[in-house]
Amino acid sequence: MKYFHLFYTLLFGVAVVLFFGMAYPHHLHYQEQFQLFLFDSDYMWEIVKLPGGVSDLLGRFCTQFFLYAWVGALIIGVLLAAVQLLTLRLANWGYLYGLSFVPSLLLWLFLLDENALLGGVWAVVLTLLASWAFDKLPKGWIQSISLIAAVPLLYWMAGPICVVFFLLQVLRQPLTKGQGSKENVQRSMFNVQRISLIAAFALQVLMPLLLSQFLAVREGGLWYGIHYHRYPTVTPMLLWGAALSVVVLVYLVSIMHRWVGSSKGLVASLLSFAVVAIAMGFLVGKHANFKAEKVMGYDFMACHQQWNRILDTISAEKPNNQIGVTVQNLALAMQGMLVSQLFEYNQNGIAGLLPEVQTDATSPMPTAEAFYQLGMTNMAQRTVFEAQEAILDFQKSGRCYKRLAQTNLINGHYDVARKYLQALQKTLFYSDWANETLPLLGNEEAIAKHPEYGRLRQMGYKENFFFGDLVTPEMLESLYFGNTDNRLAYEYLVAYYLLTGDRERYTQLMLRGQSKKD
Known about the structure:
With about 525 residues, this protein is an all-alpha fold. It has helices at about 1-25, 25-35, 40-50, 55-65, 70-90, 100-110, 120-135, 140-160, 165-170, 185-210, 220-225, 235-260, 265-285, 290-305, 305-315, 320-335, 340, 365-375, 375-390, 400-410, 415-425, 430-435, 445-450, 455-460, 475-480, 485-500, 505-515. The relative contact order is 0.09. The longest helix has 29 residues, at about 185-210. The chain is built from 27 helices and no strands. The protein starts with a helix and ends with a helix.
């Protein structure tokens, strides 16, 4: 039975890994780009000093590996399998074995939300791990003292989710007096147990009340969690449902075994697992946001300048959303195909070329990439900076820091670029790039010879002007005629005329280009 149960857990873990690695990889990339994990003591202290800080730190540490989707999928698979195994250790499940997967299933559903943070899953893992370790302690005084000490410790490590630890102890340590010759001793232990549970309950309630007087956190954050979800005002119900379901299921299993018995038959266990597995597949398939996954995929490919992959993708399925169309047109332009194949793909008017920048952290990024590739360096810098400031939980972004370092280097603002590069040096996956880029600061000759930065300097605007969020043909004309080798600007300018039906300007552009050749 033990080995069969481990086999079921392995199957579950493999299913989680395959889902996030194959069907949901860009949700993991999305998570990674909205944080900047630094191996820096000040950065870490700012996180761990808050309730739930340890789980939040562990979540951020793991999220940096989401840059590589299969590594992120493996991490999630291990965490959800660990939750199932820890849940399994908390009760004698018998023929109800399949129910031990329910908390992990709810966490899986929680992680389908692109704004769900991995710190919430770590909070559940730490809480269940503490409950399992608590059961290993000797009964009596040691457990009672440990219970009182564990509640504030867990609140600091896991945040409000730690209430599950307290509820499990109430559930699994019934307040019943002993009988027989050792009645006095048992009565004494009963009183100690009762006092420890009352003290633990008082701590569980008083800690948020007291800390609210000293910590500047959002209202209710100390009760519902500070770092479980990217939206500060959202209470992640699926996360709380996953955590509290452990308590409910342990109680339910205990009741069912009293009524029906606790058979451990292999067939019965397999049937319960099969029922939960079928429900799991149905719920995950129903609630997974595959439309958002496609949009995130376009953004990821644009970020990593995978132009050929974008062309292969849009040939198989033409995008019909703003981000997809923006990335589609950028890829076509980068390959010199925008003008010739403009109307072979879905368009969204001029909004599909360089859409008006919105005040969020996601939609401006493909537009910023187009600005950057066109040579509109200042516009790219402003767009990326504002997108980073719009991140809902006020974190920084490794992707944004890298682009801000590049734009400031191109503009010759070396002190500002150095600030971003020195921060990236403290990261795991951006440090090599930062170390390679730092020697370029102030080295005009090296920058001029650089295949990307030298080219973008030459392609940029030669005169300053005021600009808004909406790109005009005059801006593209100034960019192109300032450097007619800027083929990308030409592609966008002609596409702009074609999409707006501006035949007069299109004819003038063609005549001007012809006269230049003559």
